[in-house]
Design goal:
By secondary structure, this protein is mostly beta strands. Helices cover about 10% and strands about 25% of the residues. It has 5 helices and 16 strands. The strands form 7 sheets. The chain has a 4-stranded mixed beta sheet, with helices on one face. The chain is globular. The protein starts with 20 loop residues before the first helix and ends with a strand.
């Protein structure tokens, strides 16, 4: 197609919000975008120099403009084709600049069993530890994409393209030429035909493209730049394991935290008032609420009392347990607000502390 709303994965041109399907499905993208790259986690690190060099963090990106009316011409992704348009419909390629920041980190993605929702060695979720930029910004958006390309065709070979299509589909790769089309019936040898369950739009695609808003605030003036601040947040949502799929049930992030006596911890999380009403769980239907209480043992169900709690200072123990709301009917946190912020807290005394919600 000649417009950026259509891709092999999205042949119908479906859009959600302001997304650009072409930019979503292909990385690195050849046109400018507002997204600054943080990290690229890959299965083949030999391509890391390419990803880092092609990021708009460091590379100029351009668009093709119509000289006569200054409108963008989507179909041209490079200056040669843009500038060689006909004289009656002349084009002009314009570089809009790089961001002028460091190239993204590129490294090996954590191992995960196929379709296992990100759990890796040791049973913990795959993760990337990102140090936030030293800026103050109240409107930030963090975006994460999960792209895959199978080995059914040589996706990095420019000669492999739609020109190889025939009436049986694209024939490449395997001896005998399996047809590159949906649910093909193939000659498997010995006069036996097998039908393969294949959707070719899944061979290279974006499975997830999620974005989240947040703020970056300046450190308090009494906290030095050398002090390490850890965030303790809540992930997942209300419901049982089936209802929350492909997400997870409630959990704290990080699940384990090792601190030195000089470190600070920022306990904060955001709940919700728009969870599905039929999901399992306690409290008002459709809500997500969490608190934090200490346990004597990770295998125990009954928490320590406020007087017995030692991991938090006395000044915030009640707030942590009741999620800031002390009156009303709050036995299941129904009258609490979705957002919880306990502020910066000093690391507790040496020891091991177990906590939950």
């Amino acid at each position: 197609r000649d417009v950026a709303t259509h891709t092999r994965q999205n042949s119908g041109g479906t859009r959600h919000g302001y997304e650009c399907a072409e930019e979503r499905d292909y990385y690195p993208y050849w046109h400018p975008s507002p997204w600054k790259d943080v990290a690229v986690l890959v299965s083949n690190t030999s391509r890391c120099p390419y990803y880092r060099a092609e990021s708009q963090n460091v590379k100029n990106k351009g668009l093709c403009f119509h000289k006569n009316n200054n409108t963008v011409i989507d179909e041209y992704s490079n200056p040669t084709k843009c500038n060689n348009r006909s004289q009656s419909e002349p084009g002009e390629w314009r570089e809009l600049g790089a961001f002028g920041i460091e190239p993204p980190f590129c490294g090996l993605a954590p191992w995960s069993r196929d379709n296992h929702l990100g759990n890796t060695y040791g049973g913990f979720s795959a993760q990337y530890n990102w140090t936030l930029p030293d800026i103050e910004q109240q409107r930030c958006v963090f975006r994460i994409r999960y792209n895959i390309t199978t080995a059914d065709y040589d996706a990095w070979n420019p000669a492999v393209n739609s020109s190889l299509n025939d009436r049986d589909g694209l024939k490449i790769g395997i001896k005998g030429g399996y047809p590159f089309n949906d649910d093909p019936t193939v000659d498997f040898g010995a006069g036996v035909d097998l039908k393969l369950s294949i959707d070719t739009s899944q061979f290279g695609r974006t499975f997830q493209d999620r974005s989240h808003t947040f703020e970056i605030r300046k450190r308090p003036t009494n906290v030095s730049n050398n002090t390490v601040i850890y965030n303790v947040n809540v992930r997942g949502k209300r419901g049982n394991i089936v209802q929350t799929f492909p997400g997870t049930e409630y959990d704290f992030v990080p699940q384990r935290l090792e601190l030195s006596e000089k470190d600070l911890v920022h306990y904060q999380w955001t709940g919700s008032n728009s969870n599905p009403n039929n999901n399992a769980g306690q409290g008002k239907a459709g809500t997500d609420r969490s608190n934090i209480v200490q346990f004597a043992d990770a295998a125990a169900n009954l928490p320590l009392s406020l007087e017995e709690t030692t991991m938090l200072p006395e000044s915030v123990r009640t707030t942590a347990a009741f999620s800031r709301q002390y009156g009303g009917e709050n036995s299941e946190l129904d009258d609490s607000l979705p957002y919880m912020d306990l502020g910066l807290q000093s690391a507790p005394s040496n020891g091991v502390y177990q906590y939950g919600s």
